[in-house]
Amino acid sequence: MTARGRILTSDALIRLQSTIIKKFSSRKFPRIYQGTSGSEYNFAELIKQTELSNGNHFPICSDTLRKIFRREKVDKSSLKALFDFFEEPFAEIDMLPPQEYASSQANNHDSLYRERTDLLQKPYCNLPRVPYTEFIGRSHELRNLLQYISLDYRAPIITIDGVGGLGKTALALEAAYLCWEAKHGQRKMNAPIFDAIIFVSAKEKNLSADGFVDSSLRHSTLNEIFRTIASTLNDESINRATLENQLIRVYESLNRQKTLLIVDDLQNMTLEEQNKIMSFLDNVPYSTKVLITTRRRRQSYSPIRLGCLSEEESYQLIRQKAEDKGITISDDDATRLYECFLGFPIAFIYAIGKLASGHSIDSIVCKPCPIRKEIAYFCFDNSIQVIRETPAHRLLMSVALFHNAPTRNALVAVAGLNLEPEYEVDSSLVELNQLSLVSVQEGRYVMLSVTRDYTLEELSRYPDFETDARERWILWYRNFAQENGGMADWGDWYITYDRLESEWENIWSVLRWCANHGRYEDVKLLWKDLNHFADLYGYWQDRLACLNWLLDKSRDFGDVETLVYALARKIWTLTMMGNYDGAEQLIAEAWELHACTDTILQDYLAHNTAVLYIRQKRYQDAHEVLDKKAALVADMNGIEERVIIRCTVNTMRDRAKIFLKQGRFDEAKAIYEKILDATERIGWNRLYCYTHNILANIAIEQCCWKKAQEHLDAGLPIAKRNRNKRRLAFYKFSSAKLERALGNTDLAWKLANEAKDDFNRLGMMREVEEISTLFVTPE
Fold it and tell me: Can you give the pTM of this predicted structure?
């Protein structure tokens, strides 16, 4: 059976790329060219800009466009539609059946291997053979590197840095081969031309499917580099020169032609030899460009720092290596490898080699496993040895405790270095960055997942430090939550709550760790400062998970105050999510114990119970609960006045809701207008924003379109400014109803769908159903 679909030919793809570049220059449209590492385009941005430019809908989706550029099969109609859209000619010769493409790719790989083998026979080049049939990914870095190593580029020395196993040597060799091909008339990219290319490497070991293999040819001294230069340039005068004259002879020999000198794995040389070599390299003639690969970043030179491969590139590499080894790997197994090693090239290569030699996929991806340890040891051990028993070592192990990249303040505190001189801490952080063990991105210290796995194992060897660091980690986030959390919605609560959101994954990992280790008091105290934030910012599933844990543990410990606290808040969350039966089941237990708690908590329970009853249309029951709530507020003593006003306003709001549900709009409106004045007076911005929303809905019901718009305009900026996800969804819903009433059907449907999606993400299914009922089919 013939495989369906067609694949774009190389010539057609080049034509298409040229058209895009002419239409959207990288200078004017930089975001189009800011795809993931190795990707040619940000496809969503390309489609957006093309539609804005042409004024027409793009004919294919971004996934199909990505497949076309990745040379994957798509329908013939998609290819034709794309070329028609760009007004480019298109014919049958511009596409290939998948079988013919696969055959041509295999021929291309064989042809490339033969061409490069032949090129190695040319004089003035000692490049090693590359262990791949096609260079995968890194297209962005490769383009930059080819630009940097040009003799026209100002910097004489270029470095490629990153932790071991990311492909620094492979990138350097690919650039060098492209330059050598350009020299001999086989230009495939805009590569500079050199008359000589010299490669020296201090690599000690290579990692193969059989484990660690000693490097067959290692250059670890300046004299060995000189001998390699002499051999490659066929200049025996260098070897015959005295030590005093040898350096002069080398410079003279290099100056006779344009030379690319690659020094691989510089960090493996002794510090003394590194200093000698760098002194030599700093003074090479202008006709020589130097390219260094190293695990230790050198800030004074033009650097290219490598990170992990993108997901797309990772899958390409996995499939390529499987094909090279003559094995078939299923999509599920490829996914397991990717999820295990997350874009780490050497890990994929090593794992595929192990699969080819008979290991099972389970033995490779399981934790812990010897294979993962071998990879981590190869990539990191030499770098970590350099810093053991130093402040940098403490900082490194502390970074691994954080789920997401920490800020400097959090990291230094957890490492226990708060009292150390700031310059010593800074120099230690710089060293970690230079060793490529962490990188600094937007003020945070980022660690690759594979680095983190190895560092956590390193941390386990220092149990006393780990115990102390964990305590500091918990304390730091408890203090952070106390400073930025709580009931902070009086003014613009986003100022502090945004800080919590920026750290939420780290905070949540602290909560999980404390829960898993039975740290009840820590979870309880930390959560009380986070509960209100989690409600307003839509972290409802996290909220339920933590409240459920507190319910179980507070019962075990007989902690009635916390039990009622958790019950009251779970009642609210389940009510908002439309799970009325679940909320109802908790009310009896909460009210049975409520007298054992303070009046603020009793008031909160009464409010949440009333809200549930109102949603269940049990209005008489709601009024009775609100009567109890009013009595509680009347008896409050020794409590801040604005807190008492807040409790009173909540009672008014719940009464107004009942009138609203009963269609008594004038009575509801009168109460809400009083609430608006009260909330503005005490600076309760969140309820002020809410009240404008409700008054807008009442105005819509009473056909007062102008008044409705005024209320929406007054409250919406507050909701936006404070990232109140639930309230923003309600504002969109209200705006949709208003726009439909004004006859703006398209805009109304757009807003309604956005609100529906927002409610769905929040788990507010009652609101989803309400929108679906009101907006049944487009008019």
Answer: 0.69
